[in-house]
Amino acid sequence: MRDKRKDLYQINNDPYLKSIQPDKTTGAIPQFINIHKFLESRAYELRHFTNILQNKYTSKLEHQLLPKHMRRRAMAHNYYRIPLRIRFKSLMEIQPSEPEILSRSRCRKHRRKLRFLLNQYEMRQRQHKWTESHVWHAKRFRMKEFWGYKVAYKSNDKSGRTVYRLCQRNSACIYDQSYMQTLMIEGQEHYNRIIKSLDLKECNQVQVRWINNEYSQPEFPLTFVLFKEQRQVLVTFHPANVVDAQNYFKGRNYQFSNLNMNTLQIMSQNCSIQHIFNVLEPLCDEESSKSIQLLSNMLFDQTRINNNEILVFNVKTEELKKNFRMNERVFNYESAAINQQNQTQAQEELRQQINLNGMNLKPIKWIGTQRTTFTHRKDNQRNKIKHLIVKLKKMKEQHDSNRAEKLLKLNNKIRCQNNDNDLKMKDETESETLDYTTVIIYKNQYQLSNNFGASFQILIPQGYGLNLLRRFVYSGCKPIGLKEYLAINMEVMNPVYPFDYLQTQTGQKQGVVKAHQDLEIYCKRPASKRINYQVYNFSNPFLQKFKLNQAQKFINLFSYSRGVAQSGAMIFLPDQNDIIQLKNASLKHMWNLEERKFETSSKNKKFNFEYALISGNCFNLSKNDLSSVQKIKNGEMKYDLKIFKSKDSLELQTSEQLKRKSIGYITRGAYSQIRGKSIGIGLVEQNLFNEYKIDAGFKGLRLNGNGYLLLIRNANSLRYLPFICYDK
Predict the structure, then answer these.
(1) Is residue 3 part of a domain?
(2) Which of 112, 239, 492, 661 has its CA 20 to 30 A from that of 406?
(3) 387 and 404 part of one domain
(4) This model's pTM is above 0.85
(5) CB-hemisphere CA count at 13 Å for 597?
(6) Which residues form the POPLD domain (predicted)?
């Protein structure tokens, strides 16, 4: 088979052939040969010939190129069977080099080799981190990228309506929120300063504080757990605010350390405490088992535990590490049934025993153990992996020597600071000697309505989150993803950060990401089969904009007639004529409030072209359009936007203003399967809404004396839908 690759040797560059060519002026052929040029050209040919022989044009190794009568079995494993004349060259090929180990292999067969497994595991977490239960969730859920993490988004089975039944009846749902970030602030001075600055109370409750922005408006929340005797403060916050939270504490000279803790949230009407008792009772030590028995004495009543009240339990690490297949424990309600007086006594004893002072002044253990990557492999394979890990570490130390020195300096500083404190955090070597692990449970502030009960937050150190999650699942809890979690909060009308908090900077960033995803889907459709929002006079169909310097307010909206409120719909104030038309429509079963269409000179076909100029994403563009986009970006051509207002925003140009005054948007809207009608969470300007409430009483815009009438218009419709807002 011929080699189709180009030859590096070119005849035109031969000095001898150039000397033989006839003269351009006279055309005479030279009569003598230049010996130096002749030898130089022959040496060039010989050098080129030897280079071709040395180059390898096949992907096979040297011992694979031998003839059949010279081949031996297991030649790749036993190098003594390779002939001596090619043994050194073949060993150099078999030996793994540094770029081969550090680079991504091409096929799955290479990736599953032992020397590549550890490297591949680390490379997967370069862009998006994995939670401890990532592999467990990846087999059962559809994973999506949020806030730098791989999050379980949707369950693979059809469990949309069953989630509501399990939360409202004799079961529970559990959601893994291990992507939440945690910080620990230590020291007497820092403890006193943070209490005074944020007005925190030294009590047995979780406290939430909102950090304001430049315009003195709330920006992001921080949850604080105070440990009075240890003089420690545990802070949890959303991963979208990692930089903001760290800058907030660094700017005020607070010394903190990062903790990778696992967080679980369990939701149920009346079975949350039962599942907690069922899972933790066989794991607790002698002191914690006495206090957890008080939960059964209270008949597992959730209402007897106050909102934000904290419960601390010490769990045996040996029992927690054991394999857990199925929990066969059965509750004996007859033995737990006691009178009302004993229930109140048990409630007081529970508050006295379960507190933040620890169980008999035991130090709270925060640092967990990390699970090894290859625990499922055999012993002989583990030994091979250990040797390969040593080789990888030696190779990486040569390139990362400066980074290792910096890490050593930082570790020495942290150890010196911990030695000066009264209560020291336990190191990894000391954590193995401890026989217990601290688990913190607290009840969330909001009380779920519509028979959804309450939700409890569970905090456990790193290394034990997956095992505890499996125990709750085998106890009877249904694991859910982010989509089901948002659906439950939608039924309860509870806003979720940062999806509903669009007035904050993190909410706007989240909205921009979602807007670009919707725009990609919109641009992939043909121009004849997509909505022209300029004709509908809707300027913000993809991204809702709020003013950061104005106060916003959340309202709960319920539909008055047919129609579903979509996310991103606009909220308008009605007139007195709308009330009259609504009363007539209730008799005739009609509703004719519509916005008239507008004629625009811009064509919907230019939408992809202008979106490519703004974002750089090209969808369904011809070659001429692609070339013109590059010319406009380079400054060779000029183009005036006809659809978008500016290059920095996704707002569309509209010809005229709307008839009615808009006061906000719907952050999330859906059809409620429990109520049988549409619901929505709205975010409106507080001043305009308060003025409307005052005027509604005089103008008769209130319905049945309780609700306020508001009009909602979706982005893909001209019709105004009547919704009722119940606000105190």
Answers:
(1) no
(2) 239
(3) yes
(4) no
(5) 8
(6) 456-543
